[in-house]
Write a structure and sequence with these properties.
It is a single chain. By secondary structure, the protein is an all-alpha fold. It folds into two domains: 54 residues, Arc Repressor Mutant, subunit A (Orthogonal Bundle), CATH 1.10.10.60; 141 residues, Tetracycline Repressor, domain 2, CATH 1.10.357.10. Helix content is 79%, strand content 0%. It has eleven helices and no strands. The longest helix is centred in the N-terminal third of the chain and has 25 residues. The protein is elongated and about 60 Å long. The N and C termini lie far apart (59 Å).
Length: 207
């Protein structure tokens, strides 16, 4: 039997409260340093409140990943109409700004470190992140190239992953090595435009 809307809303609100607490606790203490009991004590909620929604720490961590990436996925979905109707240059700049605007933040970097560390012990955690994070961006780039290029002219999945690597590799390496601080929106726009311009120069030369 379905719960009344008010009860479902209250349950969802409580679940989001648990995720709020869990996310900040994971980011502050790491995966190994976090425990369900400690999270509950720090937040002033019962341990049972957490276990009501999540069977254990791993499931809770994956739910945190889902929640943290939901805004990223929504931003990419919001681009669909624009990507179909704009030129290739404009569309690539738009999707590049969206991707860079998320992956270069301090919060995203901290979450990725936790994910990569835990993935050495639980590969399915890393695979889960890859599917809902990087793979989402690759799929969107692949669709973009399919909309704008002659069918069969290029291996668009291959092209999408190459562009994704060009877009993210250097800036992510600089961020992780503390060479570059978190970029501003203006810096992200400049970066995206420069990367797209260079990519299209080479792309059109060898087309």
């Amino acid at each position: 039997m379905l719960r009344p809307p008010a009860r479902r809303a209250a349950a969802n609100s409580k679940q989001q409260e648990v995720l709020d607490v869990a996310c900040e606790y994971f980011l502050s203490h790491g995966y190994d340093g976090a425990s369900i009991s400690a999270m509950a004590r720090a937040a002033g909620i019962s341990k049972e409140s957490i276990y009501r929604y999540f069977s254990g720490k791993k499931e809770l961590f994956e739910a945190v990943i889902d929640r943290e990436l939901s805004d990223y996925q929504e931003r990419l979905r919001d681009l669909d109409s624009m990507l179909k109707n704009a030129g290739l240059h404009e569309a690539l700049v738009a999707i590049s700004e969206t991707i860079l605007g998320v992956i270069t933040t301090d919060r995203t970097l901290a979450l990725r470190r936790l994910i990569f560390e835990e993935a050495t012990r639980s590969p399915d955690v890393g695979q889960h992140y890859y599917q809902i994070g990087p793979e989402t961006a690759y799929t969107k780039l692949e669709a973009l190239f399919n909309w704008h290029l002659t069918p069969g002219e290029f291996d668009t999945p291959f092209l999408a992953r190459h562009f994704g690597a060009i877009l993210s590799h250097r800036v992510m390496l600089e961020r992780e090595c503390r060479i570059r601080p978190e970029p501003t929106r203006g810096e992200i726009k400049t970066m995206a435009e420069a990367i797209v311009a260079d990519f299209l120069k080479v792309f059109t030369r060898h087309k």
